[in-house]
Amino acid sequence: MARDVLSQNEIDALLSALSTGEMDADELKKENKKQRIRTYDFKRALRFSKDQIRSLTRIHENYARMLINVFSAQLRNVVQVSVVSVDQIPYEEFIRSVPKVTILNVIAVPPLEGHIIMEVNPNIAYAMLDRLLGGQGESGGEISNLTEIETSLVRNLLEKTLDSMREAWSSIAEIEPETSEFEVNPQFLQVISPNEIVIVISLNVQIGDETGMINLCIPHVTLEPIVSKLSVHYWMQSSKKEPNVQEVEQLKEQINDAELQVVAELGTADISIEDFLALDAGDVIRLQTSVHNPLTIYVGEQPKFIAQPGKVSRKFAVQILDDVKRRN
């Protein structure tokens, strides 16, 4: 049975009270012998262990880091996203906690049953809208009635976060998130029973000087098929999993298809700003490299090969002579 741990200040205050006679040691012993009763609310029966809550926290901390990249790219501003809390509460309590008018993005996550609700606080939603429409990212207060253009902009922005959600959850489940509903009034949203236990992940979002919350509401019925994967034992096994042959081959194909810039450097020259500004058509810049010296081939920004210039079918070309590392 868990016991409350006293701080050092509380211990000092207790010892002081006993020494001055304000408290009686015998009375304290009698109170400790009495049966302690703790109230239990069956409407808020806990469905998830602390271990599972920690796993969900890790998943969404990773998700928050991905959202930083998505929002920063789309809003062209510095965005900070962090996990504030992960709680399990009845769905009815979650609905009562959100504003009367807010952004509610209902996300289907096949093959899992049920939906995930993404609630975007009006304060941060208006800041996002302002940035998307060319503003400084200032909040406009409460959402009264979004126009079709504003609804489309916000919906498109939130849909761009679905790939990040898929990637964040990939360690425990292969889901395909997709938007199924888009609401601004929580009273019209009844996706599960009011007494159903849900996990609420609260994310703090800062865009410039504006801050607000994004809440993710995940019903227990959605997580039930994969709840066993939310244990530390599963995470430890997953971390030791070796990549299979197919994954290795896919990685090789992606590397082979990657494009790199290849540059043959004829030479370099140092000139003054005055000479540079005086350059005109027909002027000649004397390079520091002799025509008899080989050229350096750069792959990306790294010197890779030594080559000599030439022509192939009336086109300039270079012939690789050696590797830079071997030459050095």
Automatic annotation (TrEMBL):
GO molecular function: cytoskeletal motor activity
Keyword Lipid metabolism among record annotations: no
Cellular component, GO, one term: bacterial-type flagellum basal body
Pfam families: FliM, FliMN_C
GO term, biological process aspect, one: bacterial-type flagellum-dependent swarming motility
Keywords per UniProt: Bacterial flagellum, Cell membrane, Cell projection, Chemotaxis, Cilium, Flagellar rotation, Flagellum, Membrane
Family: Belongs to the FliM family.
Flagellar motor switch protein FliN-like C-terminal domain mapped to chain residues: 253-322
Family matches, as NCBIfam families: fliM_switch (TIGR01397)
UniProt-recorded name of the protein: Flagellar motor switch protein FliM
Subcellular location: Bacterial flagellum basal body; Cell membrane
Membrane topology: Peripheral membrane protein
